[in-house]
Design brief:
Elements: H1 3-43, H2 47-54, H3 60-80, H4 86-112, H5 117-122, H6 144-159, H7 164-180, H8 186-207
């Protein structure tokens, strides 16, 4: 990748971050609370919906472990067969990006220490960010589900352009579901989606900036 391409990528990501910051501030100060109250009052008022939304298990770690193991296994199998195509590159990227995205979400949640939506509904006085405190119920920002899933979708988006409409639909659906179940504030979801795309871009830049060839097949 040329120096000019590197500069262009840096400018693009920096510009998007500058645009994202005021949007997140708007959500935190003006939108997150009204949206959470709307969900509580109009969606959770339905007993069946409330029971279903409250009992959704958190399978994110399981998804990361399975995705990593399967991707790594398929990557090693394909390279041993001498296959160095888009699928092989995708598998290598996912094998690294999935665990990196999960570790990123753990670190960032500790740094920001934002109260999660459901805990805040019980303790309204805790609204906001509790930096580096590791307090109970303060692991809402950014959304870990969005970081991990968008990282994986971004990898698929990169190598298989025909999948992009489905990736976009799945990402938007996940974000809407997280907000509509009061699993996350709106700003948590937006930040998680951005960071997921960033994680994928960084891991791709470090791993796969050069085309795969038979002499470059090590993880």
């Amino acid at each position: 990748m040329s120096n000019r391409s590197n500069r262009m990528n840096l400018i693009a990501w920096s510009s998007s971050a500058l645009l994202l910051a005021p949007l997140l501030m708007l959500c935190v100060r003006r939108l997150d609370i009204p949206v959470a109250y709307f969900v509580r009052d109009h969606l959770f008022g339905n007993v069946h919906y409330s029971r279903l939304a409250s009992n959704i298990p958190d399978l994110l770690l399981f998804v990361v472990l399975i995705t990593t193991v399967v991707s790594l296994s398929l990557y090693l199998l394909r390279t041993r067969k001498g296959l160095y195509d888009a699928t092989t590159r995708l598998e290598k990227l996912v094998a690294w990006a999935a665990p990196v995205s999960y570790l990123a979400k753990i670190a960032l949640k500790f740094v920001f220490g934002r109260v999660n939506t459901r805990f805040w509904l019980q303790e309204p006085g805790l609204y906001g960010f509790h930096w580096f405190q590791g307090r109970q119920g303060c692991e809402g920002f950014p959304s870990g589900h969005m970081i991990v899933i968008v990282t994986l979708l971004a990898a698929l988006w990169r190598f298989f352009p025909k999948s992009r409409p489905y990736c976009l639909l799945l990402g938007l659906s996940l974000g809407a579901a997280l907000v509509a179940t009061n699993y996350h504030f709106l700003s948590d979801v937006i930040a998680g989606a951005y960071l997921g795309a960033l994680v994928e871009a960084v891991v791709f830049r470090l791993l796969l900036r050069e085309p795969l060839n038979p002499g470059n097949n090590a993880l």
